[in-house]
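Issue 218. Parser rejects a valid record. Input:
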Amino acid sequence: MLPDVLREEEGRVVITVDENIPNDLIKTPGDFRESFFMLFRNPIIHEKMKEILATIGNTPLVALKRFSPRAGVRLWVKVEGLNPGGSVKDRTALAMVEAAEAKGRLHPGLTILEATSGNTGIGLAMVAAVKGYRCRLVMSEGVSVERRMMLEALGAEILLTPAAEGTDGAIAAVREMMQREPDKYYHPDQFNNPANWQAHYRTTAPEIWRDSGGAVTHVVAALGTGGTLTGLARYFRDHRLPVKSVAVEPLPGHKIQGLKNMQESLVPGIYDPSLADLHYYISDEEAYHTTRRLAREEGLVAGMSSGAALAGALRLAHSLTQGNIVVILPDRGERYLSTPLFRPTPVRNAENLPQPCGSGR
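Output the parser choked on:
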């Protein structure tokens, strides 16, 4: 049941303000309306949450005040670090597990086994803890200490591979383990599992369109598995919405955890480069510098892949005279405090940085 001050009208929650509402509850009708919009925009929010997994998604869209190069271009960030496990990968983890359960590929007695750079592993460990599965995760020893500690806190077993091999080394190790004991594990395989991008098609993209009021003109996502960009691009294309999809990729030899340079890595099966309308390459220094700016100028402490995505969005913003750009910030910055991310280093002159590629179509 909705409170007496709310009613449903054509599928929307309408606020009724009258003199019976105590003055100390509301300062202005605008304040009241906004407060209840935030509470009731999620159809499950006015029911008692049954478990932590019900809080995944419906992350806020936040306007940036100091990053836009001109008045006609607005920048918004979707703060995925506010998911319960701290990243956009909570969506992917839940979607892959529930799809496997529905198809009978995952059941009690099996152990979830996955290669991860950290965030998908944290999401899977959280989902496994709630649903009662064992979880074994393989990751590069180069990932941050904070990510490992989160996984251990959630009860996951961690196996480390050489840092020089990156996530590709973890992928190879998981494939070998699956060959040895295929009946012991369920392997989600985030890099090739369509449930990965479908999670963003069903949730992330519609949320962006809804929360921007249909004003978004560009969405920007950095490439790891490619699932976020794929889901967003397919949703906007399939629904014939005037939104361009922008991919951001690190340079070869990069140290940005969670991202892939597709020229030097195993290319995920779910990644389709033709879905990107624009493609930008970002250096580690530019990504780190932008992450620090985001914290110091906007109060948003996000991860290094968030800085890469926002750096790409800034390149895009400088090329536009009008537009509403939404940038996906994949995770929180707290899990990178042991890395060089928040230690200031000089930024290479912009003229030495890679320039954007042309249209991907």
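Fixed in the parser; the record now loads. The two ends are 48 Å apart (CA to CA).
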